[in-house]
From TrEMBL:
Coiled-coil segments on the chain, per record: none
SUPFAM superfamilies in UniProt: Protein kinase-like (PK-like)
Record key words, sorted: ATP-binding, Kinase, Membrane, Nucleotide-binding, Transferase, Transmembrane, Transmembrane helix
EC assignment: 2.7.11.1
Taxonomy of the source species: Bacteria, Pseudomonadati, Planctomycetota, Planctomycetia, Pirellulales
Domain named Protein kinase: residues: 15-283
Lineage top rank: taxon: Bacteria
Alphabetized GO MF terms: ATP binding; protein serine/threonine kinase activity
Protein name: Serine/threonine-protein kinase PknF
Residue ranges of the TM segments: 313-332
Main enzyme class: transferase
């Protein structure tokens, strides 16, 4: 492959590749170690067969540029990248405890657990949005468990960088996963922003409570039509695949329906507002001490972890003072 100037700084770490963890159309992921890092990482190598495709290479490099700007407990950590034996690569946090998609195969989550996870996801999204990054592919398979049981957002391969002069996708191209795509993504609206991620978050919260996406169909066209035209469904009126009625407080049902609003301006102001609503209701419902206990992983998920400290959800209790604006929106929602 021809040498080219990278738009990101290569890491100084030297990686020794170990077992292969996964493979895709554009790259292969390996477990790796480095004398410069205290624990193993995941290294993604660009497949040589696609290294001549400028669009794929640009997307691969853009993901590294994006990841270098993001440093948050619930976003996969980046350890740099460069070239390894002529192949483009980057190193990232090793997340080998399964995904939220794996967990949901066993059934829905209780609403307090969903609210706790929602706090984490919304916090990660707000951090990304603050840096001009729209994820555009929020879904259960892109949320991974770390060793402490926290959810970590990964795969920024189709993220939009609002600070870049051009998008990685061509104008008019639809990107995302059809079960979680906002109406503006489906229509390839050039003005897409963080409100699209909020719509996907609504789909995700619905699925965590019911173990199925809010809109289903035999084809992607049928699902897209519902995203575009169907009334946002009520979680409280839904049943799980096992025929069990979902337990969900009215305020959470209403929040999800607001997130699923067809028009971006009808959704919550930002991800911080959503985080504030979820956190405040946990505190109001259970009190601070009990709310902290409720943010531990459910028994099914904790059973999949190795022996060690009990997994717990990271919640920024000290950040409440910084959420006054968001909580004001929460008060209007309840009113």
């Amino acid at each position: 492959m021809s040498q080219q100037k990278l738009r990101f700084l290569p890491t100084k770490a030297t990686f020794e590749l170990g077992e292969q963890l996964g493979t895709g159309t554009v790259g292969v992921v390996y477990k790796a170690t480095s004398p410069d890092l205290p624990e193993p990482v995941a290294v993604k190598l660009l497949n040589p067969n696609v290294s001549g495709d400028k669009n794929i290479v640009d997307r691969f490099e853009r993901e590294i540029v994006v990841m270098e700007r993001l440093k948050h407990p619930h976003i996969v950590r980046n350890y740099g990248g460069g070239q390894m034996d002529g192949q483009l690569f980057y190193a990232m946090q090793l997340l080998d405890r399964g995904s939220l998609k794996d967990r949901l195969r066993r059934g829905p989550l209780a609403w307090p657990q969903v609210a706790a996870y929602g706090v984490q996801i919304a916090s990660a999204l707000q951090h990304a949005h603050n840096h001009g990054i729209v994820h555009r592919d929020l879904k259960p398979s892109n949320l991974f468990y770390d060793r402490e049981g926290n959810l970590v957002l990964g795969d920024f391969g189709i993220a939009r960088d609002l600070h870049a002069q051009a998008d990685i996708t061509e104008h008019g191209m639809t990107v995302g996963t059809f079960s979680y795509m906002s109406p503006e993504q489906i229509t390839a609206d050039a003005r897409i922003d963080g409100k699209a991620d909020l719509y996907s978050l609504g789909c995700l919260l619905f699925e965590m409570l019911t173990a199925r996406p809010p809109y289903q169909g035999a084809t992607f066209a049928q699902v897209w039509d519902q995203h575009m035209h169907a009334e946002p469904p009520s979680v409280r009126a839904a049943q799980t695949e096992a025929g069990v009625r979902v337990t969900c407080p009215e305020w959470l049902d209403e929040l999800i329906r607001k997130l699923l609003a067809k028009k971006p301006h009808e959704r919550p102001f930002n991800a911080r507002a959503v985080e504030g609503v979820l956190l405040q209701h946990l505190l109001d419902e259970f009190g601070e001490e009990e709310a902290k206990k409720l943010t531990k992983l459910d028994a099914l998920q904790s059973a999949t972890f190795d022996e060690g400290p009990k997994p717990r959800i990271w919640v920024v209790w000290a950040a409440l003072a910084a959420m006054l604006a968001a909580l004001a929106w929460a008060a209007s929602l309840n009113g």
